[in-house]
Amino acid sequence: MRSLPYFCRGQVVRGFGRGSKDLGIPTANFPESVVDTLPADISTGIYYGWACVDNGDIHKMVMSIGWNPYYKNTKKSIETHVIHTFKGDFYGQILSVAMVGYIRPERGFESLDELIAAIHSDIEEAKIKLDLPEHLKLKEHHFFKTSVSTTANQILNGHRL
Ligand code: ADP
Ligand code: MG
Hints:
The protein has helices at about 30-35, 110-130, 135, and strands at about 5-10, 30, 45-55, 60-65, 75-80, 95-105. The chain is an alpha+beta fold. Strands 1-6-3-4-5-2 form a six-stranded antiparallel sheet. The longest helix has 19 residues, at about 110-130. It is globular, with a radius of gyration of 15 Å. The site of adenosine-5'-diphosphate has 19 residues, from strand 2 and strand 5. It comes from Cyprinus carpio carpio. This is Riboflavin kinase. Pfam families: Flavokinase.
């Protein structure tokens, strides 16, 4: 994918309440305005990269880009699981992400246990890949140093290296 690494930023909105948090894997949703600006060559599936909330620390993340059942699968959604334990929710705050690499396409699962196991294996893969020097250096990218306005639903897409 030529667009990787891809940087984007937006205000965290409520998702579909599918209970991701109850599974121990909360996923922060981006608003449609961010989804609509994704380049065409960023396909659906699971990605890994870096994420930070407002001006906080930069953490590893896994992200799912998929078809949103709420809109009868006509609209994509972007959901980010930050690999970090936060003190509370961060709805309304600004999530900045660097999508660095692709793990796998979307797929169906026979059971909830199988889905959870797959996400845990995605998380392990993300942790290992992001320790590679070429990926670690993206943590230092100026994208993460630009100050974030929490009042605006700010989108800064298309930051390329
Ligand atoms: P929703 O359906 O509203 O997206 P989730 O159960 O997926 O609900 O929980 C997502 C919310 O949990 C995020 O919007 C964020 O406010 C909060 N959250 C807390 N910790 C994390 C984390 N490590 N990664 C992503 N979101 C988190
Ligand atoms: Mg969610």
